[in-house]
Amino acid sequence: MPSSVYSTSEVDALVGELDDRVTALEAGGGPGPTPPPAQDVIGFGVSFGGIGYTDDAGKRGRMMDDVIAMGAVSLRMQLWRQTQCVDAIHQAVGKGLVVLTCVMPDYSSTVIDRARAKSYGTEAANAIGDVVDDLEFWNEPDLTGTWTPEQWAQAAVGFQEGVEASQHPELRIWQGALWTWKMNEGSTTQGAYEWWRQAYDEWDRMGVSGLPGFGCSGHGYGDTGWDDPRNALWGYFGPDYDGQADDCIRALMDRNGDEAKPIVLTECGNGDPKGQPAAVSSMFNLMDSGPLDSFQVYSQWDDAAGTFGMRPAEGQTPRQAYGIYQSRASGVVGGARRFRSVPPGPTPWQLRGDIPKLPKGVAA
Q1: Burial class (CB in 10 A: 0-12, 13-18, 19+), 80
Q2: How many CB atoms are closer than 10 A to CB 125?
Q3: DSSP letters along 225-257, please?
Q4: d(Cα 310, Cα 298) in Å, to the nearest integer?
Q5: What is the mean pLDDT of residues 284-297?
Q6: Which has fewest Cβ within 10 Å: 36, 124, 271, 322?
Q7: What percentage of the chain has pLDDT greater than the value 70?
Q8: Which domain does 82 fall in, by range?
Q9: Strands 172-178 and 215-221
Q10: Does 233 fall in a domain?
C-alpha cells in the first residue's frame, strides 16, 4: 500500500491525461476497439456412427464414447426420423460433442422446391437450434438423376431463408454435401466443380449475391494419391490440392466473392480398410496445410454402406486408421483450425433486388 495520498493537483493531472486519451480515441487518433475474433470452423470429427439411429440409447452412447476416445470433437448426425434423431443429437451434445446436423427429411432423390426447403429450414432450426450451431442442407443430391444443380441452388436459398425466419436465425448453414464421384448416374465426366459452377450461375440469375450459407460442405473418398481427375478432392482443391486451379471449387468460390467462406468435408474416407489409413492421413495433411478447413471421417463402426469403420463393430479391435486418427488428433492444438477471416454475425449473402422474372414452370 502507498504510504502517501495523491494531492488534488496530481489527481487533476491524471484525470486530464485520461480525458486526452479518450478524446484521441474518439477522433480516431488511437487504437480502436478490439475486433471480434474469427469463428471456429467446426472441429474435425466423425460422420455418423455406423449404427444408424437405433432406439438403443445405450449403444448410441457407447459409439459416441468411442468417437471421443479416438480424439474426435464433432459428430455429423442426420435429422430424418425426427424422434430418434432429436434424441440422439441431444445425447451427443450432452457428451460434449459438437454436432453438425444434416437436414434431409426426404430421401436424397426427392426434389423439393424453394418454398418447401424454406419450411424445412424453419422446422429444423426450431427443433434443435437450442443445442446445435451448424446445419447442413441435404445429403448427396448429385448421387441420383432427379436433382439438377439449378434445382438444388433454388432449394439451398430457400433453406437459408427458412433458418433466418426461425427462432434461431444465427445458425450456420453448410451447403453442398455432394457425393462428387460423378454428377448424376451415367455421367463420368462432370463432377463437383461443374455442379457448383452451374449453381453459382443459377444464384446469379436469381439475384443472389454469395453462397447462401456459412460455407461449403462436400464429401471426399479415397486419398490424395488417387490418380483420377474425378476424385472429389480434385474438384474442391485442384490437382495440386492448393485451391489455386481455375476449375476447382475453392477458386470458384473466391471468384464469386466467397473467399472468406470455409470448405469442410462432412464425409470422407476409404471403404477399403487398407486404404482408410491413407485417407485419414490425407485429411489431416490437407487441414494442416490450409486448403481444407475441417473434416469428418466416415465412419466410427462399419454399417450397411461397407467397411468404412474405424473399428469393425462395438468391442472389436480398432483398425489401423483408428490409431492414426487418434495420434494425429492429439497433435492438433485446440481441436480445430481457425478460419482465415470468418467474422461472427449473419451469414454474408443477400438478394440483390434485381431478381428477373422466372421462366414459366420454374419455382421461386
Answers
A1: middle
A2: 26
A3: T---TT-HHHHHHTTTTSS-STTSHHHHHHHTT
A4: 8
A5: 89
A6: 36
A7: 73
A8: 45-346
A9: parallel
A10: yes
CATH number for the domain spanning 201: value is 3.20.20.80
Distance between CA atoms of 125 and 166, rounded to whole angstroms? 6
Per the domain annotation, does 357 fall within a domain? Answer: no
pLDDT value of position 270: 85
3-state DSSP percent of the chain in helix, strand and coil, to 5: 35, 15, 50
**How many angstroms from the chain centroid is the CA of residue 138?**
12
Nearest to 283 by CA among 272, 296, 271: 296
Q: Does residue 8 fall inside a structural domain?
A: no
Residue 136 bridge partners (DSSP): 102, 174
List the beta bridge partners of residue 208.
351
Q: Is the pTM of this model over 0.85?
A: no
The answer to whether 163 and 155 are in contact (CB under 8 A) is no
DSSP 10: H
Is the pLDDT at 339 greater than 50, yes or no?
no
| Residue 286: all three cell numbers together | 490437407
Cross-strand bridge partners of residue 55: none
Cβ-based neighbour number of residue 362 at 10 Å: 15
Go through 173-208 and write b for each residue having 16 or more CB atoms within 10 A of its CB, e for each that does not: bbbbbbbbbbbbeeeeebbbbbbbbbbbebbebbeb
DSSP reduced 3-state for 264: strand
Q: Measure the CA angle with vertex 225, ends 223 and 230; round to 5°.
A: 75
The three grid cell numbers given for residue 160, joined into one nine-digit string: 437459408
Strand (E) positions, 86-138?
Answer: 98-103, 134-137
- pLDDT, mean of residues 35-44: 69
When divided into structural domains, the chain yields a total of: 1
Phi first, then psi: what are they for 157, rounded to 5°?
-60, -45
C-alpha grid cell, residue 64? 459416441
Angle between helix 192-206 and 149-164 (nearest 10): 60
The answer to the question of residue 215 being in a domain is yes
Report the amino acid identity of residue 160: Q
Cβ proximity of 232 and 250 under 8 Å: no
Between CA 310 and CA 49 the distance in angstroms is 10
Per the document, the length of the chain is 364
